[in-house]
Amino acid sequence: MRKTCLLLLTLTGCTGIPDGVVAVEDFELSRYLGTWYEIARLDHRFERGLSDIRADYSLNSDGSVKVLNSGYSAEAGERESAEGQAEFVETPTVGRLQVSFFGPFYGAYNIIALDKPGYRYAMIAGPDRDYLWILARDPQLPAATLKALVDQARTLGFATDQLIYDRHPPSEQIP
């Protein structure tokens, strides 16, 4: 996703976590790897015009995480993607990573909520309250689960009234 580069220029060196927000502990990377669907996000230029946004995480040979973000652009009539790399900020058992899509420029990827029994949903914050994503293993989340995550984000001071809810085609139409 060409627009992702704009975000990373903005976030250069921004690998912090918002005040009062805590990353999950007892994190297990092996369970987190795989495909995640974006359910909701706060608006940013690098994702505008995209739908069916997904993130695929896999392990690189050096122990870092390969990140492949993609989304469908109706304007271009095709999926756009960006490949990056993530590394832990603290220890591998704390859900705080820094992600780079080019060079030495990193952005914060703070996992602030996680379905620990099943690793079926997660909530991610950037370095401040302007960045928030709700992800799930399936293209949709049960309404009660989504409401609980949105309520948690609101309590933490995120502008949940500005969330954008992503659209995903039926599974038989997913490219």
TrEMBL record:
Subunit structure: Homodimer.
GO biological process terms on file: response to stress
Keyword Membrane set for record: yes
Function statement: Involved in the storage or transport of lipids necessary for membrane maintenance under stressful conditions. Displays a binding preference for lysophospholipids.
Domain of life per record: Bacteria
InterPro entries with a match to the protein in the record: Calycin, Lipocalin_ApoD, Lipocalin_bac, Lipocalin_Blc-like_dom, Lipocalin_CS, Lipocln_cytosolic_FA-bd_dom
Subcellular location(s) of the protein: Cell outer membrane
Pfam family, one: Lipocalin_2
GO CC terms: cell outer membrane
Ranges for domain Lipocalin/cytosolic fatty-acid binding: 28-165
Keyword annotations from UniProtKB, A to Z: Cell outer membrane, Lipid-binding, Lipoprotein, Membrane, Palmitate, Signal
Membrane-topology descriptor: Lipid-anchor
PROSITE patterns listed in its UniProt record: LIPOCALIN
Keyword Lipoprotein: yes
Organism: Methylomonas koyamae
Family the entry assigns: Belongs to the calycin superfamily. Lipocalin family.
Gene3D superfamilies in the record: 2.40.128.20
One MF annotation (Gene Ontology) recorded for this entry: lipid binding
UniProt protein name: Outer membrane lipoprotein Blc
